[in-house]
Write a structure and sequence with these properties.
Blueprint (H helix, E strand, L loop, with lengths): L15 E8 L5 H9 L6 E7 L4 H7 L6 E4 L5 H11 L4 E6 L2 E3 L3 H10 L4 E8 L5 H11 L17 E3 L1 H6 L10 H6 L7 E10 L5 H23 L10 H15 L2 H9 L1 H17 L4 H5 L12 H11 L2
Parallel strand pairs: 1-2, 1-4, 2-3, 6-8
Antiparallel strand pairs: 4-7, 5-8, 6-7
Helix pairs in contact: 5-11, 8-11, 9-11
Length: 319
């Protein structure tokens, strides 16, 4: 049952619950938790870990002690978020992935905006390795629409915190969606979340080019499926011409960044082009699933099952 917004709270009770989402006790969660413990305004912290792993031992080795909710089987982000919402009580709720870090003032700024009357507050996303061209390219291929200098009409409203009463009114996150749970829930809001670039989250980016290429391939594969299933779009809609896509990223960089960050991001564009080409390959790879998606027979793979294995299973079973 959802905690009620008007539940009694002491004057010192944390007003923002932050649910850290982790899978398999990923070591990156240590940095996420530490970034929250370092906030000037203390949040209510809950770590939700699914899929096993020695998360208690990991926390203990780093001298950390925070409330923990362990889900034995691996679940998608929507289900993990829902479990965290039900297990916390603060009147406002935010989420932090294990590969993200809350910057100084993250909690206080969210609370300031919520108290000003905004029921949903979206945040900007920063590159954690601003001196690395590879990390910039990794960041831009995924998050160019969340750069802090973008105008509100150009920004994607993710990284959102909510007034808890929102969930009582419109429901929780879709637990069975592999991705797109944010878009699904925001589609039920009366108005889009506030774009708040003053709330800034660091994303831990990679400097491993082969690993990023693999990630982009599977992101493209999933994006092709989700855009077809949820929005009815052709695969080409999420894999536009590489040259045009790079131009769009460059435009976002010129609007959304300044100074040395802008210069480094622009220098990374050849790598952005490489990664976008790999994402386009992933989109093309999901084409055999179009009949199953269009007929409503497609189902997401169980958590932990790779997309490649699942596609072979679906095609072999005639889905």
């Amino acid at each position: 049952m959802l905690a009620q917004h008007g539940a009694p709270q002491s004057e010192t009770s944390p007003q923002l619950a932050v649910i850290v989402i982790a899978v398999g006790a990923a070591p990156l969660l240590v940095g996420a938790v530490r970034s929250l413990l370092a906030q000037d305004t203390a949040p209510e912290i809950l770590l939700v870990n699914s899929g096993g792993g020695d998360v208690r031992g990991l926390l203990a080795r780093h001298g950390l002690a925070v409330p923990l909710l362990e889900l034995p089987r691996q679940v998608y982000a929507g289900e993990a978020r829902n479990a965290g919402i039900a297990a916390t009580t603060a009147p406002y709720v935010a989420f932090l992935a294990s590969d993200c870090r809350a910057t100084p003032g993250w909690v206080a700024e969210r609370l300031r905006l919520h108290r000003a009357g905004h029921e949903a507050v979206a945040s900007a996303l920063l590159n954690d390795k601003p001196r690395s061209l590879i990390a910039w390219a990794h960041h831009l291929v995924n998050f160019a629409a969340r750069l802090p200098g973008l105008p509100a009409d150009k920004a994607i409203r993710y990284g959102t915190s909510f007034d808890r009463r929102v969930f009582a009114r419109i429901g929780l996150f879709a637990p069975a969606l592999r991705s797109g749970e944010d878009s699904d829930l925001q589609g039920r809001l009366a108005a889009p979340p506030l774009w708040a670039p003053t709330v800034r989250t660091l994303h831990v980016n990679s400097r491993n080019i082969p690993a990023i290429c693999r990630e982009c391939y599977w992101r493209g594969y999933r994006a092709g499926i989700d855009s077809r299933r949820i929005l009815g779009l052709a695969p080409e809609a999420v894999a536009p011409d590489s040259r045009r896509a790079v131009e769009n990223v460059a435009h976002a960089v010129r609007q959304g960044l300044e100074g040395q960050d802008r210069r480094m991001a622009l220098r990374s564009l050849p790598l952005v082009d490489l990664f976008l080409r790999w994402r386009a390959r992933g989109v093309r790879a999901m084409r055999p699933l179009l009949p199953a998606i269009d007929s409503g027979r497609y189902r997401d793979p169980p958590p932990g099952v790779t997309p490649a294995i699942w596609q072979r299973h679906l095609l072999a079973s005639g889905a």
